[in-house]
Amino acid sequence: MKPYYITTPIYYVNAAPHIGHAYTTLAADILNRFRVMRGEKTRLLTGTDEHGSKIEEVARARGVTPKAHADEISGEFRQLWKDLEVRFDDFIRTTEPRHEETVQAVFKALHEKGDIYKGSYRGFYCVSCETYWTLGELGDKRVCQNPDCGKPLREVEEESYFFKLSRFQGPLLEHYKAHPEFLQPQARAPEILRWVEGGLKDISVSRTKVAWGVQVPFDPQHTVYVWFDALLNYVSALGYKPGQPPTKEFSEYWPADVHLVGKEIFRFHAVIWPAMLMTLGLPLPRTVFAHGWWTVEGEKMSKSKGNFIDPRDIIKDYRLDAFRYVLFREMPFGADGNFSRKAFHERYNADLANNLGNLVARTCEMVDKFLAGQLPAKPPAEPPAKTREAIAASQGIYDAMEKLAFYDALTRIWQIISGLNLYIDQEKPWKTISTDPERVKLVLFDVVWSLRLVAGWLTPFMPETSAKMQAQLGVRQFPAPLTAEEVLAGGPSGARIQKAPPLFPRKPPLPGGK
Ligand code: MSP
Fold it and tell me: Hey, which bits of 405-500 come out as E strands?
C-alpha cells in the first residue's frame, strides 16, 4: 500500500507563529499519529515560505537582510513544532537549493511547453495576501477581495510571465466531478466550482520589481511569483524535477493523500496547484482539505490589534495535551471558531479535570483501595457491558478520524468517558464494597478495560496523557487497542493498577470571575 503523505501549508516567515498556524500543523500531526497508530507508513511535510514582497518589506523595516530574517523566523516555526510534539518527517524552506532548483526547472519546462508565456500585467496586488486582482474582479473597489483581508491594494504595471491557467477550466471541472473527495469539506466545494465555472484567466507568475525570489532561469530580470514558487514545495521536498527520473521518495509518496490548508488559501490549492500538476503530467493529490479560521475573543488576529495568541503561553498554563485537545474540541474541523481564554479554561476544568482526569483518578484509587491494585489473574472470556459498548464505539471513532472529523471523534470518546463516570456514580462501589465485593470487582474491571480503549483512542490527540493512562491502567503501550483480547489482558506487566497524581489538576477560577 502506498504510504500516507500529509502536508501542511508552508508558513510565511513575516512574523512569529501563532495559534492559527499551530492549528493546521497539529491537525496534520493528529492525523499522522492516527495513521501510524493503525500501522501505516506515513510522511508529514511542513516548512516555511520565505520569498516575496511581504518578507522583503518586513526584513527591510527591521534593518536585516531577508535571508537573516527568514532564518530567524523559520527557526521559530521549527522550534514551535518541536514544543508541540509535532512529528514531522521533513521541513522544507523555499530558500533551500533543493527547492529553488525544482522551481527553476518547472518554470523552464512550462515555458518550453508554451504553458508559460511572456506578456505584460496591469492590475492590482495585495502584498499581505500576495494576490493579484484584475480590474474585472475588482469593479470599482480598490481593496483586497480575500475574505478577512480588505487591505488597500498596490497598482502594478510590468512585464510579466503568465501561466495558461485558462486552459485548465475543463480538465479541472472534470476532475472535481470524477473525484468528489478532492475538494473537502464538501461544504466548501461550491466556492471553487463557482470560481472555475465562471472562467479562468491566465495568471501572472513573475515579477520584475521583487528581488527576493527565485530567479527566472532564462530571464534574470524576473523572479517567480511567490505562490507559483511555494506550491511546488510539496514535490520539491520529494526531490522532484521535471524531465528527470523520479527519486525514490517521489515514487514512494506522491501523490499526497491530503494537503491541509486554511480556507483562505483553498483556491490556490484547489485550482492553481492542480493545473500546475496537470501540465507537468503528474497525478493530483487525493484531497485538499480547507479548515476554518480562529478568531480571538471574537476578533480577527492582527498586528494592529496585537491579539495574536502564542501557543507557548497557553501550554505554560495548561500543558500541551490540554492545548491539543481543546483546539479540536471547540469546533468541527472545517468550521470557523472563536478562541477565548474563558472558554478554554472552562473546557479544561469540565472535560479534562472533572471528567477524564477524575474518572482515571477515582478508578485507579478504588482499584488500589478495594482490590489491592489487582486485576483478575485471568481475563474473562467475554468483555462486560461497558467494555462491550466501548469496543462497539471504536468503529465510529476510527471512521471519524479517517474523515478528519476530529471533533466528532472527540465527542464520541467523551460520550464514553461521561458514561463511565455515570456508571460509577450509579454503582457507588464505595458503598457496595461491604455488601457485594464481587460486584465491585466487575464494575471496576469493566471501567479499567474501557479506559484502556479510551487511552488508545487518545494517542493521536494527547500522546503524553495517553501514555500516562496506559501506564496507570497496567497496559504496556500498545498503539491501537483494537481487539477485545488485548483490552482485557492488558500488557505483560499485567494486572497492577497504579495510583498517580491527577492527569489534569483542576484550575481555580480565572481572576475577575472570567
Ligand atoms: N505561505 C502561504 C501558504 C503557502 S502553501 C503552499 C500562507 N502562509 S501563512 O503563514 O499565511 O499561513 C497560512 C495558514 O496558517 C492558513 O492556511 C491556515 O492553515 C493557518 N492560519 C493562519 N491564521 C489562521 C487562523 N486565524 N485560524 C486558523 N488557521 C489560520 O498562506
Answer: none
- Residues 123 and 193 both lie in one domain: yes
Overall number of domains in the chain? 2
Q: Is the CB of 9 under 6 A from ligand 1?
A: yes
Angle of CA points 430, 431, 432, to nearest 5°: 100
Task: Tell me if 12 CB under 6 Å of ligand 1.
Answer: yes
Domain span holding position 475 = 312-511
Distance between Cα 12 and ligand 1 center (Å): 8
pLDDT tens figures, 303-332: 888 899 999 999 999 999 999 999 999 999
Domain holding 502: CATH number?
A: 1.10.730.10
Q: What separation in Å is there between the alpha carbon of 11 and the centre of ligand 1?
A: 6
Degrees, nearest 5: CA angle 93-95-96? 75
How far is the centre of ligand 1, averaged over its atoms, from the C-alpha of 196 (Å)? 22
Q: Which atom of ligand 1 is nearest to the CA of 9?
A: 5
Q: Are residues 281 and 318 in the same domain?
A: no
Taking the CA of residue 262 as reference, the ligand 1 atom at the shortest distance is 17
Three cell numbers written together for 433: 464494597
Q: Are residues 286 and 318 in the same domain?
A: no
Q: Whose CA is nearest to atom 6 of ligand 1?
A: 231
Whether this prediction's pTM lies above 0.90 is answered by: yes
For the segment 334-381, what is each residue's pLDDT rounded down to a tens digit? 999 999 999 999 999 999 999 999 999 999 999 999 999 888 777 788
- The answer on 290 and 168 residing in a single domain is yes
Q: Which of 275, 309, 343 is a domain's end point? A: 309
